[in-house]
Amino acid sequence: MILSVDASPYLDQTLGTSGLRKPTGHAMQPHYVALFMQAVFAELDVAGATLVVGGDGRYFNDEAIQTILKMAVAHKVGHVVVGRGGLLSTPAASALIRARRAKAGIILSASHNPGGPDGDFGIKINAAHGGPIPIAVSDAIHRRTRTTSHYAIADMPDIALDRDGRHQVDGCLIEVIDGVTDYVALLETLFDFDRIADLFRSGFTMRFDAMHAVTGPYATELFQRRLGLPAASLMNQIPMPDFGGLHPDPNPHHAADLVDFVAGRAQADFGAASDGDGDRNLIVGRGLVVSPSDSLAVIAANAHLVPGYRGGLAGVARSMPTSRALDRVAASLGVPCHVTPTGWKFFASLLEAGLITICGEESAGTGSNHVREKDGLWAVMMWLNILAERRQPVAEILRDHWQAHGRDYYQRLDFEEVDAAAAEDLMETLRRRMPLLAADLAGRLTVTEVNDFAYTDPVDGSMATRQGVQIIADEARIVYRLSGTGTRGATLRVYLERFAPRGEDHRRLPAEALAQVQALAMQVADVSRFTGRTSPSVIS
Ligand code: G1P
Ligand code: ZN
User: Fold this and answer.
1) In the prediction, which pLDDT does 17 show?
2) Which ligand is nearest to the CA of 111?
């Protein structure tokens, strides 16, 4: 029986950098998820289609997934593929959408944000190509939510998600699958598993932190069962609805235990972590944390050592705030380097058109054309395969890289939960002052360009404007933008970069190498006055 339920529309269902993201309590209001999904189903026209559904296992996902399944039946969806236990990492979901020729994917995740009743909840919608839906579609969904005042839902019992199975309900096949096997099989087509297993057998030690999030089962299958890594090398590998009370963001701040073990106390050769939904990564070597921008550049420069990329790279891409280290690698390889706004949807378009093979963001997202999302475990496997070939410590690989290309010292400062109006004001003031900045900074920075980043997609011609203010100099760069994934107030991100060319000292601490740029960045935008903060909440 199909019920039509009336309810008042919610007017705040805006989709940000990665879909709908709200405090959990907010998303648990009556009919909130159902009304949103009604708009999604109507916009995507899902009758007869295949959908992929899964998420990072966070609190309230179970209930939301049951609602989505019942609504899928009501909307005459032909086939729903759901991850067992409601679990699918974002990259595994992307792979599954492609493999099953699904029309769309629904990924329940607020990525690296904390989970639980006081944490966050999120719904990401992916397109048939496996990547995030383009802005035109997310805008259309948002517009629909504002007038959606009913939803259709089947009156049926919950589907058992704790075991694999096929459930035929009213012409809709709901198939519960183990999300791990297909994903690991995909990685096997790209990497030399034997060589990596050899590396582990040779005494090379590794530690992986799944942060009690979705990659636990994937990492157990991949590293432990397939590659022979001892079980004790995995940390926090059981997914939990509240991530064990931790913050599943793989940065030095939130993965402090791992960083201390590998970088601080040098107790392992290699450390890695992944976030809530498994699309981000952290790479750590004995004595050092690899900055995500450097990791991207090293991966691109060494990709030819990995079987899946032996044929070379069609091109590469980075998000605008990501350091220019990738550009230097691209120039030396003689391949194009595209610069896109923040968010994977822009890469998805380039990947789909075959214009790029590898891409990434400073926020610890790296990926390739094997899926249309960033992929945390893929990045870890790239490093492992490169290490298995080069048999050098991580620190030495970086040192060689900087010697060849120069080093882009890099840091991101986050000012979290600042007053939203004040943050807007800061950005608008900065935009107004853009024409004056070069002169203001004369003598301190040789500014070659100041702009508010705008991007035209080379594939479909769509435009994105107001993507962040950049102050570009030959020797340094400062970028300001507001986060599109926060759920409380606004988050101002300030990105700092300083270039140390070949032959210069590459052993400085980033904080020290960037101290002057940071002082300028704080001053130019009057950050303390607008935000009331003299120092950032997080530095990564
Ligand atoms: C953040 C990151 C961005 C990433 C996104 C989703 O977005 O900065 O690179 O694509 O999360 O993981 P932001 O909050 O900055 O809009
Ligand atoms: Zn994520």
Assistant:
1) 78
2) 2
Kindly give the distance from the C-alpha atom of residue 275 to the centroid of ligand 2, in angstroms, as a whole number.
6
Q: Give the pLDDT confidence score for residue 80 in this predicted structure.
A: 98
166/223 same-domain check: no
* CATH number reported for the structural domain that contains residue 451 in this entry: 3.30.310.50
Residue 535 among the catalytic residues: no
Residue 307 CA to ligand 1 center (angstroms) comes to 30
**Proportion of the chain above pLDDT 90, given as a percent:** 97
Amino acid at the residue 368: S
pTM of the model as a whole: 0.95
* Cβ–Cβ < 8 Å for 276, 213: yes
Same domain, 295 and 411: no
Q: How confident is the model at residue 82 (pLDDT cuts 50, 70, 90)?
A: very high
Residues 302 and 331 in one domain: yes
In the predicted model, is pLDDT for residue 247 greater than 80? yes
Residues 416, 390 within the same domain: no
Are 200 and 336 in a shared domain? yes
Contacts of 381 (CB under 8 A, 6+ apart): 187, 190, 191, 196, 222
442 shares a domain with 313:
no
Answer yes or no: is pLDDT of 486 > 80: no
DSSP state of 343: S
Please identify, among 116, 147, 177, the residue that sits at the C-terminal boundary of a domain. 177
Tens digit of pLDDT for each residue in 498-509?
999 999 999 999
What is the domain range of residue 17?
2-177
* Residues 6+ positions from 260 with CB-CB distance below 8 Å: none
Question: 23 CB less than 6 Å from ligand 1?
Answer: no
189 shares a domain with 326: yes
Closest ligand 1 atom to 362 CA? 9
* Residue 488 pLDDT level (bands cut at 50, 70, 90): confident
- Return the best residue to mutate from 14, 17, 251 for the ligand 1 pocket (most ligand atoms within 8 A of CB): 17
Asked whether 484 lines ligand 1 (CB < 6 A), one says yes
Q: How many domains does the chain have?
A: 3
Q: Verify that 233 and 367 share a domain, yes or no.
A: yes
Torsion angle in degrees (nearest 10) through CA of 46, 49, 55, 57: 100
State whether residue 300 is helix, strand or coil. helix
- Considering 129, 154, 177, which residue would you say is the last residue of a domain? 177
**Probe target for ligand 1 pocket from 107, 249, 361, 374, with the most ligand atoms within 8 Å of CB:** 361
Q: What is the CATH number of the domain that holds 316?
A: 3.40.120.10
Which residue, by CA, sits nearest to atom 15 of ligand 1?
Answer: 483
DSSP letter for 312, please: -
Residues 315 and 356: beta-carbon distance below 8 Å: yes
111-157 residue pLDDT tens: 999 999 999 999 999 999 999 999 899 999 999 999 999 999 999 99
Q: What is the pLDDT of residues 2-23, one digit of tens each?
A: 999 999 999 999 998 789 999 9
Return the sign of the alpha-carbon dihedral for residues 523, 527, 530, 533: negative
Q: Does residue 361 sit in helix, strand or coil?
A: strand
Residue to mutate (ligand 1; options 342, 415, 488; most atoms within 8 A of CB): 342
For residue range 174-183, what is the model confidence (pLDDT) as tens digits?
999 998 999 9
Instruction: Please identify which of the residues 89, 94, 111, 293 carries the catalytic annotation.
Output: 111
